[in-house]
Each structure stands twice: as C-alpha cells, then as structure tokens.
Amino acid sequence: MSILIFLATVSILLALTGLGAFWWTVRSGQYDDPLGDASRILLEDPIDRPLD
Amino acid sequence: MAVTSPILDRQDFSAFLRDGEDGRPSIDLLVKGARCTACLSKIEREISAMPAVTSARLNLTSGKLSVAFERGRDDAGAVLERLEGLGYPATPFDPAQALAAHDAEGRRLTMALGVAAFGAGNAMMFSVPIWAGLFGQELGPATRTMMQWMSAVIAAPCAVYAGMPFFTSAWRSLRKGRANMDVPISIGVILTLVISFVETLLGGADTYFDAAISLLFLLLIGRWLDHRLRANARSAASDLLAMQAPAAVVVGVGGVEHRTPLDDVRSGDLLLVRPGERIPVDGVVEGGVSELDNALLTGETAPARMGPGDICRAGALNLTGTLRLRATARSEDSAVAAIARLVEAGAQSRSLYVRLADKAAALYVPVVHSAAAITFLGGWALGLSPREALLRAVAVLIITCPCALGLAVPAVQITASARLFRRGVLVKSGAALERLAEVDHVVFDKTGVLTEGRPRLLDPVPAAIAMAAPLARASAHPLSKALSAQAGVSSLAQDVVETPGQGVEGWIGGRRARLGRAGFVGVPGAVPSETELWFGFDGDTKIRFAFADAIRPDAAQTIAALRQRGLTIEILSGDVAAPVAKVAQALGIETWRAGLTPAEKSEAIAARGQGGRRVLMVGDGLNDAPALANAHAAMAPGSALDASQNAADLVFSGEGLGAVVTALDVARSARRRALENFAFAALYNLIAAPAAMFGFINPLVAALAMSGSSLAVTLNALRTGLKGSK
Q1: Each residue of B582-633: pLDDT tens digit?
Q2: I need a surface site. Which of B64, B254, B385, B397 has the fewest CB within 10 A?
C-alpha cells in the first residue's frame, strides 16, 4: 500500500513539473508567434565579425 | 515641377512611441507583405543594424515589428524609410491598440487547456484501477476509496480552473436571462463534482471525477479552436483599421512636418499629401496640382483633376503631384467617417445573427435538463433510493455530454477556413461561413470586382507602344502604367518632367517627346478625355491610345457557376450607366443599377434582405463598405480598400473571381458537415440518454462514450471541403 502512495505522489509531482513548464511557456509568450518561431529556426545565426 | 520618388522627410513620430520594459523608447509598426522566412531575416537584420536601434523583432503571425531605440535617439522616421526601401511599407501602430491586441484571453484559454490535459491524464491514472474493479478484479473498498480521493484531489482543482471560461460565460448568459451551451456544461460539471465527492464520502462505487475533467478538456479544444479563428480575424481587422488610419502629415509653424494620428487632425490644419498617399480628411486644395483616383470611393474609373480651390474627399488616392490641403473637417466628420457609421450600423444588425451552435444549444438545453429531471423524479417515484436516482440523473447529464456539440461547429469551421486559406481566401469568422452557406442572391460591384479596376489598352499596336513606353514607364499615372504594362522591357526616357494633371515630357533617343492629354501633347481640337492618352515627338504626328476597364477573364465563368448553384445575380455600381450597361450585357446579367451613392447601395441590399433574400455582396470600394456590412454575407478582393476588407466577411486574393465559387462551395460543405455532426450528436444522445436513465452507465462507459463521440465528430469535420480540392 505504501508503495502505491509513494509512486502516486512521485508521478503527480513529475506531472506537476510538466504543468509548471507549460505554464512558463505560456507566460513567456512562446505561443504568440508560431509562424515566426518556425521560420526563425531556419535562419543562420548572424555573423558578428567580418569573415576575413 | 519634377516628380521624384517621394522621400519621407524627417518627421515627428513621438505620438506613437511608448516606453519599453527597460525604459527605452520603442515603437510598434505594422509591416505589410512580410509573410516569409526571408522577409523576417531581411527585416530584422537590416533594421537592427541601423544606428540607435537596439533591437528589432518581427512577429510573423501578426505582421508586427517592435523596434526599440537607444534612450533619446529614437528615429522612427528613418526606420520607416528603411522599411520602405526594403519593399515593405509600414505604418506606426497606435500604442493603445497594440496593448489591446495583446491576446490575454488566448493565453488564459491555452493555460486552461494545459491544466485540463494535466488533470484528465492524471485523474485517469487512478480511474483505471477503479474501472478494473468494475470487472470483478481485486479491488478492496478501502483501496477504491483511496483511488477516488486521489482522483478527486487532482481533478477537482483542475476542473475548477479549467472550467472558469465556461462558468463565467454561463453566468453572463444566465444574467441576461438566456441559456447558452455553457449553462448545461457548467451545471453538468459542478453537479458531477459534487455528487462524486458525496459518493466518495459514502464509499460508493460510481465517481466521475475523470469524466468531469476530460469533458472540460475536450470542450476546451473546441473553445480554443474557435478562439484562434476569431483571434486571427480580429487581428486582421485591427490591422486593417490601423492601416486605414495612417498618420496624416500636418505642416506646423515654420514648415515643420509632423506625422499626426488621424484623430488629432483639426479642421483648419494644413496638410501635405504626396503622390501615392490617400487624402486623410476632407479638405480644400491650397497648393499643387494633381489627379485623384476616386475609384475606391465612388467606383468611377477615370481619375479626377485637382487644383487650388478644389474639394478633395478623404480616402481618394493622390496620383501624380504633391498637394497642400486645408482640412475642412475632422476625421470623424469626413465623408469616410459617414461611410464608417453606415458600416457600423450594418455590423450591428449582423451581430444579431444566431449561430448554428447557439440554435442547437437552445434545443439541447431544455431537452437534456428535463431528461435528467425526469430520471431523478421518475426513478425516485418508481422506488429507487434518492441517492441512486440522483446518480442516474447525473449520469444522464454526463453521458449526453455536449462535447460532441461543442466540437461539432468549431472543428468544421477551422477545417474549412484552413482549406480556404490555402486557396487564397481569408475567412474572418466562423459565423461568416455559416451566413455564406445560406445566400441565394449575389450582388456584384462593377469596378475592381467584375472588371479589373484598372484601365487596359484597347487595340494595342506594338510599334506605337514601343515608341511611347520609355515615357510611360516614368509616370505613375494609371493610364501610363497600363501602357508600360503592355510594353514589357524597355529603356527609360531621359530628363523626364511630369506636369501633374497634364502629362510627362522627356527625351527619347535625343528627341523631345510628350505623353499625356491631347492639349498637352499638342493635338488641336481634340475633346479632352480621361480614357485616352496622346503621344508624340516634337513636331511629329501624334498617336492616340484608348483605354477601357477590362472585364476579369473568369467573370463570365464565375457567373455561370453561381447560376448553376441556384443563385441570382445583380450589379450595383456607383459608376455612370454606360460602362455598367456594357459590362452587364457582356456578362449576360439582366438586373443592374448604376450611379448609386454608398447609402443607396446599402439600402438596395437591405431592401433585398427584407424581401426575404439572403444576399452575398462582393465589392471592393469604400462606397461598397456599407453595402458589404449590410449584406447577409460579404466578400472583398485583396485589392480592395482596407475599409472594405474590414467590412467583408471573407477576403480573397489573386486575380480570379473563382474564389467566390470556391468559398461558397466550402461554406456549404462546412454547413453540411456541421449539420451531420449535430445529427450524429443527436443520435448518440438518443441512445446514450435512455441507457443512462436505466442505469446502464458506469464511469468506464461514460469515459469511452464521451471521447468516442468527440473523435467521431472531429474526424467528420476533417472531411470539410475535401471534394474538389487538388
């Protein structure tokens, strides 16, 4: 019985971590511009210094 | 007076600046035409490389560019100029509107969806052993009660949070004395939670914590889809509003030019309107000569000449010369504002439209609630214990879950608008699709809808075109543009000087040549006409080019297709009778009216509506905007003036009118799918409700039935508009 309670608690804590992460993604506006984010990953990083 | 490309002078944009998070001034700009990865990288790279700019970030979804400046070095004018140079015209976005556009409701819904998903998944973890217990597996009452409590601890708070959008909407609707779909949902969820708690306390077997939260999860999917569709439409609409009200250039004391928000322009202000800009408010010309394109205002194809003393109406496009205007009306008193009020009135009457889902809710609510009440009272009367009777009543409420109903329409509409979007039609709301599916009469505007809305050269003679092309290319006048469009690649004339309202003069191959009005080119005795151009070398014979507004290539085909679908066709135009009659005859349309004012057009539409017809209006001009807003459904081409796109339900891009037929087909298909979904939901409830009444439902069956019906409805929705797609 005690193992059940232990496992259930652990699994809920894990799920709560996931929910917390989701809350953070919503709050930090990561769903505000899905199109732009999908495009941004295709862009090369800006080169700050001249090539030669 | 030489006309060079208009260079934005250093203007004052301080009215549009706001303080960013770290105190740096920043400005939000609406960038037109930025819709791809390459645009994103080009704009961000170029703008952030500018001096004094600390960051530039483009939101590709909304087309908004946020630029932050170093403190005290804000130069929004330079940014706009740079964007213009890159080929992306931009307008500053009113800070107040920018804040309103921040989609707080969307975030709340997304969060509620996440919480519901968490709750449903984890409550289910404890439901599985309980379900197993239903089939005689070993599950002692103590373990079962523990599982139920675990389930309750997770599901109840999640359900309260995730249910908030429904509870608040239900409460609002109840206070108005009506019951929308959220009322049975809220009652169902709350009752389910309470009864499940009581059952857990009493040690009963039937608790529905997982059902309550997964019901909310499924419903939130529908709600979230619906919100996304509306949010897209709303941001499109507010973008259009912001675009429609570009700042006016007010000349202040000492000749300083201020870019001023339209609302702040006062009567008596001196305004500067450059070629390519629209007249911001009604005014009288004080200086400068030009031609105004009234096509979008009145439907007239021919440009009107303007000189000192002439009255310009807001919304007209300045073509050739810079005009100095004395404002005679404020923005809200201008001719455009009068049209805007007509549009608003139309939009209000349209908001009375009862949507399909609400009609279904009106039927569903009383039926389901009386069924639940009968179950409780009947069960009690027939000898069940009150607790057992109440449990069965709750089972009825849960099993007849409106999730199929809640998903039936949003899933169909999101599928339909996605399919239409891929074919170049932007749907602005789900209700628009429902209304479009019902139309039986189509009213077309002529200029820019049935016709291309721009002049096309009649009887082109290649040799003559080639001769005049170098001059034509140097001018922005619509007739010159039509001429150079026919010419293809050619050289540019030297030392070109454009005389606004007259024509252009320049040197071609060492000879002086003129292109323009008959009098300007030097044709004696010719009648001045707005649909012809003359060209001639100095002292040589003069050549005449005649133009007409060409009918769109697929207009006839579209009208045939619409007739085939049982619709009647009519033309309402603001243009004079002769060209309208010609177009009507060419397309075989018997019913047409010409010379209508915006108000008359709108009245004609309203009269049709009162006559029991459901009218689809297709128009592009500002003069069509009230008619668009008053029609049962409205479509505007992407070339239309922003105000008209704003008043329309659907906006189609591309050259063809065929989009009208496509949109109609998809809308009708969407309506069929939605009705099928309702029929399915009704059939399902017809079987499920009696089953619940007679106590055949346990928590496992409830969970299966609920998700099964939602899945069936969603899959059916995906079929929308499939037929005929390539």
Answers
A1: 889 888 888 899 888 888 888 899 898 888 889 999 988 777 888 888 888 9
A2: B254
- In the structure encoding, which two tokens stand for residue B317, read together? 């496009």
What pLDDT shows up at residue B9? 43
Tokens encoding B545:
């080019």
Assign residue B262 a region: left if phi > 0, alpha if psi is -120 to 50, beta otherwise?
alpha
A43 to chain B, any CB pair closer than 8 A? The answer is: yes
Tokens of B326: 């004395």
**Measured between alpha carbons, how far is residue B297 from residues B112, B241, B536, B656 in Å?**
46, 17, 33, 22
Return all residues near B647 (Cβ < 8 A) that are at least 6 apart. Answer: B343, B346, B347, B624, B625, B626, B628, B629, B634, B636
CB contact under 8 A, A35 and B60: yes
Measured in residues, chain A has a length of 52
Closest Cα in chain B to A44? B41
Question: What is the rounded CA–CA span in Å between residue B429 and residue B417?
Answer: 9
What is residue B672's DSSP assignment? Answer: H
Position B707 scores a pLDDT of 79
d(CA B371, CA B656): 52
Mutation site for A-interface testing, chosen from B21, B39, B40, B151 by largest number of A Cβ within 10 Å? B40
Residue labelled with tokens 């606004």: B500
Cα B418 to Cα B721: distance, rounded to the nearest angstrom:
10
Q: What ipTM was predicted for this assembly?
A: 0.79
Q: Out of A36-50, B108-122, B166-180, B658-672, which region has the weakest mean confidence (pLDDT)? A: A36-50
CA dihedral B626, B627, B631, B634 (to 10 degrees): -90
pTM equals 0.71
Nearest C-alpha in A relative to B150: A8
One DSSP character per residue, B433-502 reads HHHHTT--EEEE-IIIIIEEEEEEESS--HHHHHHHHHHHTT--SHHHHHHHHHH-S----EEEEEETTT
Angle between helices B209-244 and B386-399 (to 10 degrees): 40
